[in-house]
Amino acid sequence: MSLLSVRDLTVKFASRDGAMAALNGISFDLARGERLGIVGESGAGKSITGFALMNLLSKPGFIDGGEILFEGEDVTQMSPKQVRDMRGNRMAMIFQDPMVTLNPVLTIGQQMVETLRAHRNLSFEEARQIALVKLKEVYIPSPDERLDQYPHELSGGMRQRIIIAMALLLDPKLIIADEPTTALDVTIQADIMELLLEMCQSNQVGLILITHDLGVVSQVTERTMVMYAGRIIETGATRSIINDPQHPYTQGLINALPQQTPPGQRLKQIPGAMPTLSAMPTGCPFHTRCAHVTDECKRTAPEVSQFGDTAVACHEVHRLQRDLPKEVAQ
């Protein structure tokens, strides 16, 4: 049995003009200990997917249909108490800004101890010792001192390490990391992603990494899912997606990487912009930006079909001639 099985998940946002779909019937599976990357531009539905999996959607957003089976239990049908027991305990989320996650008026130790005691029958000292061990695991220097410090007294990289430690406090089966290194500089980003990968591998924790950075995905994940306008348009082994993309949108993302452009030349970009929820085109949502668009693309949304090592939602995938370099990933 898969650790996570999502089937036909639809998320909508209520508005005066009617409900608008932010996720449109997405389906995917995650095996125990597997690392999955979700990539796409802003507005593709990546973060909404993460929030829906954690049952963290707030109004006007709501799950309109489908199943989220986590260890065989449907998250969409859980009671509020069951959801509280699941969050942090069995499924944890790392957000892109640690200052949003951490309470500024409580010390790091207070926050970690409260988290542990909310889910485990532990004394204060027992919880503090576990917190200390977790800080050591993520290579926090002088962990005893850090427990008694406030978030604003720590650097951005230190705060993100503490968020990872807090996510691992209760030994969850799945971690959802939503752009976990966005606010950090490049060298610290690499350290944090290496740490997250190490923690997941050593603890056999499933990981869903939500990011727009294909370089990070190529280094950390085993499988990649490309999203566009609330749909999954391509999924497969990460190496296959990076080195031999099939969908025109994925090809555009690869072509836009800086290393794909010779020095001194303008960076390549995908023309146009992601459609808004209120102005979603008919047929394939990417057809307004696609160089290979046909009348069929404008009329009907493509079904997902297997092409080589990847599953692709494109009418023209069998016809397209690809000329991407085959050695993009390092």
From TrEMBL:
<dbReference type="InterPro" id="IPR027417">
    <property type="entry name" value="P-loop_NTPase"/>
</dbReference>
<dbReference type="Pfam" id="PF08352">
    <property type="entry name" value="oligo_HPY"/>
</dbReference>
<keyword id="KW-0547">Nucleotide-binding</keyword>
<dbReference type="InterPro" id="IPR003439">
    <property type="entry name" value="ABC_transporter-like_ATP-bd"/>
</dbReference>
<keyword id="KW-0067">ATP-binding</keyword>
<keyword id="KW-1003">Cell membrane</keyword>
<dbReference type="Pfam" id="PF00005">
    <property type="entry name" value="ABC_tran"/>
</dbReference>
<dbReference type="InterPro" id="IPR013563">
    <property type="entry name" value="Oligopep_ABC_C"/>
</dbReference>
<dbReference type="InterPro" id="IPR003593">
    <property type="entry name" value="AAA+_ATPase"/>
</dbReference>
<comment type="similarity">
    <text>Belongs to the ABC transporter superfamily.</text>
</comment>
<protein>
    <submittedName>
        <fullName>ABC transporter ATP-binding protein</fullName>
    </submittedName>
</protein>
<feature type="domain" description="ABC transporter">
    <location>
        <begin position="6"/>
        <end position="254"/>
    </location>
</feature>
<keyword id="KW-0813">Transport</keyword>
<dbReference type="InterPro" id="IPR050388">
    <property type="entry name" value="ABC_Ni/Peptide_Import"/>
</dbReference>
<keyword id="KW-0472">Membrane</keyword>
<dbReference type="GO" id="GO:0005524">
    <property type="term" value="F:ATP binding"/>
</dbReference>
<dbReference type="InterPro" id="IPR017871">
    <property type="entry name" value="ABC_transporter-like_CS"/>
</dbReference>
